[in-house]
Write a structure and sequence with these properties.
heterodimer; A: about 325 residues; mainly alpha; about 70% helix; B: about 300 residues
Chain lengths: ~325, ~300
């Protein structure tokens, strides 16, 4: 187990390094630097600004300075390895760390709410459909699931706003004040994944309910509810657990859209703007956090998977 | 998965024909495709022509109403259908080729190669691919535009974003396909007909192309049907954020983005959201229904 975690940790570092490097190079080879869109500045001054942000010199020098393995213009090591995420080139004199500290808790709350909603809702709906297979409940649930998968969340979002915020005035249109402004965005974000997990869960539950240990449990007189929700669920939930990694990745990208629809001051809009402004350090900051989060989550998912399924041993 | 399910069972087509949902889905898709291809030829209204008739509700001369620039919404939805379907279908085809090739090689090679290739798929599953994709699209579009202009392809410059979108979207949705194909190949390659082919001295390439590929054709078609809506969704996601298809061109995503912006408590221009949403959702629904029905038809046991 320990060796497994160690090996996974090593691969995590490699993945992160690749993503950081790729992002940095992609932004820096793009035509037009972070300062070219504004009023024309004299070349000498632009050179000075670039030097201040350590964006002068060759690409290799810029990258290694950013990573923190080369001394910057002040003669210090100050990069990712030292925990320095640099300054934003667009939002002048604000550090990337500060911007992230402001926006990430919001995105995180939204993501977590959607994550919980998607998993609990999906597992419950899928098991219900499996237990009552070929009844109207089953057909209805699966039909609803297919609808939710097919309708993009940037359609569901505005429709929910029209219904609950504008017509019924029950919930806020957007923004970020209290828990009530979390309801619609979380539902919008989780919708397709409730459906996806419900479909996964139904198929797997149907398979498990035909297995011998379920028949044994029934024969021993265990109540039907306990058979399904205790004995069968523990095995049937495995495909859902292995989907949790991709789910987190999808929720991350989905949250960008949902934050745009509901005007939520999370990290999503900053991400989009940092691309449009070639704001390399802010972009890197968001990408690093996103990737690190996902990679760590995936490790947890793998550990949870083996814990649930004793038949699998980590290589 | 046992070996028996890997072979396309006989009578798949007749089972599909008996499924009313599949028939309806196919009819809808045929209709949408026909309208997207021939609609703009029959309905000759320029989707980019602006007028002073802003925000006209549906009816009269304008079927679906007009938008904030007085453009005809119906013409815009038609153009959007062309672009979204073009990106969706060609992107899905690229995914199909990449995924199948990857899965075939991984499954057929087996052993260490297979291990490394599948580990890579796992890693790719876990990184936010769309986020990297947004970056790649944004940056290469600029380069591609300059390149096109420099080499005298000025008439294509307007389409550079669409071309880039097709190429990049074609490279991110193949992971599931690769996994499925690999699983099928793993169970197929130990069957006797493959052993026989090998004993007869056929080359690996020939075994893969002549013996394995025909046997997984069914499952490939199923996942092609399911990849098209995924790619359409990805494209509309980018366009919704303003990073996909560029104005004045329209895709369903950019139309929905325009529609979502004019939803407000004071006055609602619902038609700008409703019609693109309806057309897009129906198309995606039909594709997903058809994919499910195809899967049932090819593997009746999965149905239960």
């Amino acid at each position: 187990m320990f060796a497994f975690i160690l090996r996974r940790f090593a691969s995590m570092v490699v993945v992160l390094f690749c993503v950081i490097t790729l992002t940095f190079l992609l932004v820096r080879i793009a035509p037009g630097g972070p300062f070219t869109k504004e009023r024309r500045i004299p070349p000498a001054i632009e050179k000075q600004i670039m030097a201040r942000y350590n964006l002068d010199g060759s690409l290799w020098e810029q990258l290694t300075t950013y990573l923190g393995v080369r001394k910057n213009s002040q003669g210090q090591f100050s990069g990712i390895l030292e925990g320095d995420l640099q300054l934003s080139t667009k939002y002048r004199d604000r550090s990337v760390r500060e911007l992230l500290a402001q926006t990430l808790p919001i995105s995180g709350t939204l993501g977590l709410a959607a994550f919980l909603l998607a998993t609990t809702g999906g597992v419950w709906l899928g098991s219900l459909a499996a237990v009552r297979r070929h009844t109207p409940t089953d057909t209805g649930a699966m039909l609803a699931a297919l609808f939710l998968i097919s309708i993009p969340n940037f359609v569901i979002g505005p429709v929910l706003i029209m219904l609950f915020a504008i017509k019924l005035r029950a919930l806020p249109v957007g923004g970020w004040q209290d828990w009530s402004s979390l309801v619609l965005p979380a539902i919008t974000l989780a919708g397709p994944y409730i459906a996806y997990i419900a479909r996964l869960m139904r198929t797997s539950m149907l398979e498990v309910l035909h297995q011998d240990f379920v028949r044994t449990a029934r024969a021993k007189g265990v109540s039907e509810a306990r058979v399904v929700y205790q004995h069968a669920l523990k095995v049937a939930i495995l495909p859902v657990v292995s989907f949790l990694g991709p789910l987190a990745a999808n929720l991350l990208t989905g949250s960008i859209v949902v934050e745009t629809i509901f005007n939520i001051p999370g990290a999503g809009p900053f991400f989009i703007n940092s691309i449009l402004n070639s704001d390399v350090f802010l972009l890197e900051g968001v990408v690093i956090v996103y990737c690190a989060l996902l990679v760590v989550l995936n490790l947890f998912v793998d550990i949870a998977y083996t814990w649930l399924d004793r038949r699998i041993r980590l290589e | 998965m046992s070996a028996a399910t890997a072979l396309p069972p006989p009578g798949a087509w007749s089972r599909l024909r008996k499924n009313p949902t599949a028939i309806v889905a196919m009819l809808i898709l045929g209709f949408v495709l026909l309208v997207a291809v021939f609609g703009p030829l029959l309905y000759q209204v320029d989707p980019h022509a602006t007028s002073r008739e802003q925000y006209l509700p549906p009816g009269g001369a304008h079927f679906f109403g007009t938008d904030n620039n007085g453009r005809d919404s119906f013409a815009r939805v038609l153009e959007g259908a062309r672009i979204s379907l073009l990106v969706g279908i060609s992107g899905a085809l690229i995914n199909l080729i990449v995924g199948t090739a990857y899965g075939l090689v991984s499954g057929y090679a087996g052993g260490r190669t297979d291990g490394i290739m599948m580990r890579l798929v796992e890693i790719l599953y876990a990184i936010p691919r769309l986020i990297i994709l947004i970056l790649v699209t944004f940056i290469f579009d600029k380069h591609f535009k300059t390149w096109l202009a420099a080499h005298g392809y000025t008439s294509v410059v307007g389409y550079s974003k669409i071309i880039i979108l097709i190429l990049t979207l074609g490279l991110i949705e193949w992971l599931t396909m690769a996994r499925i194909v690999r699983g099928q190949v793993l169970s197929l390659k130990n069957l006797q007909f493959v052993a026989a082919a090998r004993a007869l001295g056929q080359s690996h390439a020939r075994i893969i192309v002549r013996h394995l590929l025909p046997n997984i054709a069914g499952i490939i078609i199923v996942y092609l049907t399911l990849t098209i809506p995924a790619v359409i969704l990805d494209e509309s996601f980018l366009s919704f954020l303003g990073l996909g298809v560029q104005a004045p061109q329209a895709s369903w995503g950019s139309l929905l983005s325009d529609g979502a912006q004019v939803i407000n408590p004071v006055k609602s221009y619902w038609w700008l959201l409703l019609y693109p949403a309806l057309v897009m959702s129906i198309t995606l629904l039909a594709l997903n229904f058809l994919g499910d029905a195809l899967r049932d038809a090819l593997d009746p046991r999965a149905r239960r």
